[in-house]
Write the structure tokens for this entry.
Amino acid sequence: MELETVRIKNFRSVEDSGEFTVEHLTCLVGKNEAGKTAVLQAIAGLNPHPATPFEYELERDYPKRYLARYSERHGGDDAVVVRSVWKLTEEEISDLKREFGSKSVTGDTITVSRFYNSHGTHWSLPIDEEKAIEFVISQQGFSAAEKSQVGSPSTTGELIAKLTELTANSKHKALFDLVDAYPRKSIISRARAILEPHFPQFMYFSNYDRMNAMVHLPSLNKRAADETLFSHDQYRGDRLFREFLEYSGLTLSDILGTTTFESFNAKLQAASNVLTEEILEYWTQNQDIEIRVSVTEGLPDDPAPFNSGAVGRARIYNLLHKADTSFSERSAGFTWFFSFLIKFDRVKKDATGKVFLLLDEPGLTLHGLAQSDLLRYFTEKLEPHHQIIYSTHSPFMVPHDNIMASRIVEDLVVVDERGRRTPTGTMVREDVLKADKDSVFPLQGALGYSLTQSLFLGKHTILVEGPGDILYLQALSAELLRRQRIGLNPKWVMCPAGGIDKIQSFVSLFAGNSLDVIALSDYTKKDRTKLENLRKSEIIKDGGVLSIADFVTQEEADIEDLFDPRLFCTVLNGTYELKGGQEIDPDKLNAADENTERQVKKAEAYFKVLAEPTPLYNHFTPASWLMLHPETLTGDAEPILVTLERAEILFKALNGLLGK
């Protein structure tokens, strides 16, 4: 099963997070003190892993301003903290159908909740109990008379009560024994027992252990034997050193039991080679290093206990400087990254069931590019084995190839007409456009970084006006490709240039990168001279300067004019949730400003006269909404078909310029 949605209530700063969806790898973005840690810890308490225990405590965790009225607010019941929805796999659904019949399984999701003062979780399952009972009865080989005696009970309790009267019959007795053995003598509890092995435990990490660079091996071996190594926090760095040895393929018994130098040396060299290969796969900051594992006898003048017995050391050798240093003397970022890789490789190996990872601000000490390496490690090494939610406020930890997997965490405050500020608590938003600019900053940074990198790395680049143009073109292309028609060739990389005025300087800046660059611009009458000069400048190849006006019937046009007015109004109504008298249609749109044929200008004029709190129109918001609601472009309604036809003509023209 996989977590699909979560809603958190009544937990610290989170009065009600609102329901938000969860991807296989989900990034929580927000300012310091926004409530990201509270969100992760609330989820961790749903089913905590024994290695990272977490329990809800009413006095500590319930929002303090309401604590005195707890019973009053919840009618004497305990307050819910987390309500989660999980998507079942085909295999899990098949297990339920095999036990209770296909007609009894009414859906493919379950809801799991947890409350204050509860010792477990509450499950809501897609099981029709009456149909499940019918199926269980039908599998017993009853004759018509025997089945008639059982009747048609609608609950497990009724079935058991009836069978209690019929135990003289061996078939009735067998059915009684079957149902009586169900957990809590309940079909619903039996269904839960079938699914519980697939329900993950949550491991929450906020303090990330750092490995000790030097360990006294006899002491380490003794502590491992009496298990104090695993129960005392002061040995966490030593414990990680032991995992470090095992990660490389060595065990303490291998080291302490070796009796010849050649065998001993070969094992240490092999371990060093394994560790070097592994770390360099994900540490791109410095490829000129080697990890070296050494074991030597302690010297008399070394501090105790390192002055006698076998001492294990981790050292880093720099191939350029021909020098080695202790692991503990490396940068904080390197020691953190290395320790993290060792730790989570162990988590993966030790997992006896499904484990869901909750990572609070990982990689804080890392350089931006090292954070990108860490994100790649998440994707390649952790994600295949675990569903993950992590928090960050760094642009480099936002998955720029899947920004829509990010969720904005905000601590909201309402200001009334008297200027009084009232907190409404932490909320988790999927619609990043409704977040404040400080919270969304890491996403903007990630998008900008991604676009800049794409410009350097993409051999074929289309310069467009702004990010809204990119989203519109991506949405239209995706729908055309879904219909097996012509969309934008994936070799093209789109990059916002900021308008016609900036295209020439933009291309000049990257002229040495041997890029294949074309431009797609909005067009107004005042832009005619600029476009002609750009075409004559030869800085962009012949035929590579296009305008939207080339693909519509009007003289002046923006990217929005590819859309049929009826479809454009649908997008606006959906984006801004316009209803009733505010809902826009083509007639209202046209009447808003009859002095222009550009739909953007008409929309701007329309929104200026709408009453608050409706925001002013901007180019990016509707484009982002359309990306989040691709179903808007499905179907065969005339406005959709007209729009897609225009877009397809545009994409054919753009694709025709590829590599020319």
